[in-house]
Amino acid sequence: MFYTCVFPKRWSGSWFQKGSPDPIRVYNGTISTKGTCRENDRDKFLIENTMEKCFRCVVLHEKHINVLQYKESHCSSDPQYQSLDSLCADINGDALLYSMFRFNTSAVPCPFKGSFAFSYSRGHGDCDNPPSTVDSCTDDSRLLLRFQACADVLGSESRSE
């Protein structure tokens, strides 16, 4: 069978993902840790893992030239359940969202200046009081995130990143 699915050229390269011991390589129609793209519809990609002999849907979003985020279905070896539509329909709205960050890239200036408030969630409710803050730093390519703990939200904590 002939496939013509390729990822955008700008995604080519090595990427870091928390929990992955080795860099993830994206090139042409392949993601090194997932497999080879066989079909796509906009941001939805049908990936074949030839090692595990299964297919999965990966919904990929470019959040920034240096950041890709994705959700994925389980890897199905059932021939009746290997279409792009059926596997992508299997991804719930609350499925894990994975982030990949490009290795060896040049710094990009922060698009905003000053200090802003934000809320966050660790899966046990929104932590919005007291508000957490984000500040642009003296190094124009970095941000300082100050997370505040919320007394009524399990898993919230005070820390800076």
From TrEMBL:
A GO biological process held by the record: autophagosome-lysosome fusion
InterPro entries: DUF7042, DUF7044
Name of the protein: Uncharacterized protein
Sequence ranges assigned to domain DUF7044 in this UniProt record: 4-90
Taxonomy, superkingdom: Eukaryota
Coiled-coil boundaries: none
Positions of the DUF7042 domain: 107-159
Annotated signal peptide: none
